[in-house]
Amino acid sequence: MENYKKIKCGKLYDGIQAKLQEEMEILVCGKYIKEVGHNLPCPEGTEEIDLSHLSVTPGMIDAHVHPQFFSWRDLYKDVIFNSDGYRALATYHTAEKALRGGFTTIRSIGWFRESYELDVKRAISEGHLPGARMVVAAHILASSGSHGDMSQVVRSHPQLSDFLESTYVGTGNGPDFFQAAVRREKKIGGDFIKIMATGGFATPNDDPDDIQMSDGEFKAVFDTAKELKIPVTAHVYGTRLMQKLIGFGITGMEHGSLMDKETAKMFEATGTYLVPTFCPYQDAIEGDEESMSMKSPEFCRKLHFYQERLRRGREAILESNIKLGYGTDLVAVHESYESGWEYSAWLRSGADPFRALQAATKNNAEICGIEKIAGTIEKGKYADISGWGRDLLKDENALRDCSFVMKEGKVYQAESYVDL
After folding, report:
1. Which of 18, 34, 169, 188 has a CA 20 to 30 Å removed from the CA of 260?
2. Nearest-CA neighbor of 28 among 54, 52, 2, 10?
3. For residue 109, which of 51, 183, 185, 40 has the smallest C-alpha distance?
4. Pairing of strands 133-136, 60-65
């Protein structure tokens, strides 16, 4: 006998329309949404779930997660002290906590050593462990000495640094290396390719305006990925590199924090998406010295240096019509499963709440390649459904305070992260 549940919504954001609908109901059959509407007829024995006190949305999606840590403070310790098994446990911990927080899918953006994340994804998808659905870039592909080469943490010991680099399967140089790396990512089951194309804020010896791969290396990545039909995204900040990558036909990019209007128009014209990860730079945007001081000295110095460009870039992104995703990139100050912090950054930056909600649902489902099963509340999709007690349109903490979560028709214990 089929298992039916009827959810009575207080207000409903379905991921399709930019409005909150009143007195809507969702009929769930097994894993799937059967009907959405008013006063739905139900089979005998249907379980009723009363969420009339909540705003109901699709299960949220975080499209830029580094799930490998129990605590963000372990980021650089991880290079030397943590085993793959420990990272696997931390990855699962993040996926489980994200689900409890109303985020039913997370997109893991890659790491350096062998990909235990694919094993965690498999265990969750096969139903052995409860957790957010995972979309995974198995490894970060990066050049030696780049923002993606974590061996620079021990750069004062060159021999040790070189040895550590040799253990990073996605780190190397030259077109042949990157062609082979893309092929391997596809072979082992990666969902997409992530390249570390530029420098960053947290690492000591590079710069967010750097370009850290050659044109030949870029061409090897994009030509191979196109033949293998696997999408590519890139870690990028500066406009010169963003424009170059659009020329190579990239699917989308991460960060883009130093955006300008000319580059934004190129994104719009080509349909290239951007996952802007506002949260890690919110303290620089607002001049929050206490928050910035919690980051590494290198991170803090660069935030101060690029502060005005970050502010102008934020404005250019939000004033554009770029297809935006929602991603947190929490590697400092907050834990990787606290995905609701990004919503706070959007609202504090003056973004339309519906644009942020669409980014975290419909747009992210498309970016993750799961738009046929998730991202909106409509007939035939998985019953990924979250409920929120706060005002979604006015309260910046709304997505940090989950009151109900269902994934594939199964209800899980919701958890609030407001008081962490």
Report:
1. 18
2. 2
3. 185
4. unpaired
Residues 6+ positions from 223 with CB-CB distance below 8 Å: 179
pLDDT digits (tens, 9 = 90+) for 189-242: 999 999 999 988 887 778 999 999 999 999 999 999 999 999 999 999 999 999
Give the DSSP letter of residue 127.
T
Write out the two tokens for 376.
Answer: 């909106």
Rounded Cα gap, residues 112 and 99, in angstroms: 25
- Cα separation, 295 vs 310, in Å, equals 17
Q: Environment class of residue 404 by beta-carbon count within 10 Å: exposed (0-12), middle (13-18) or buried (19+)?
A: buried
Among candidate residues 60, 13, 7, the one with its CA nearest the CA of residue 399: 60
As a dihedral over the C-alpha atoms of residue 86, residue 276, residue 200, residue 170, rounded to 10 degrees, the angle is 50
* Calpha distance 294→366 (Å, rounded): 35
Domain spans of the chain, in order of start: 4-58+375-412, 60-368
Report the chain's C-alpha Rg in angstroms.
21
Query: What is the tens place of the pLDDT at every residue in 113-140?
Result: 776 899 999 999 999 999 999 999 999 9
Q: What is the pLDDT of residues 136-194, one digit of tens each?
A: 999 999 998 778 777 677 777 888 777 777 778 899 999 999 999 999 999 999 999 99
Is the model's pLDDT at 79 over the cut of 70? no
- DSSP secondary structure letter of residue 20: P
Task: Give residue for tokens 């044109």.
Answer: 215
Distance CA(400)–CA(328), nearest Å, equals 13
Two tokens, residue 49 = 């779930």
What is the SS3 assignment for 185?
helix
Identify the architecture of domain 4-58+375-412 in CATH.
Roll (2.30)
The answer to whether 191 touches 233, Cβ cutoff 8 Å, is no
Pick among 3.40.50.720, 3.30.1490.20, 3.10.450.50, 3.20.20.140: CATH of 60-368: 3.20.20.140
- The amino acid occupying position 132 is A
CA distance 218 to 197: 9
- Identify the residue whose tokens are 């998808």: 125
Handedness of CA 359, 362, 363, 366 (dihedral sign): positive
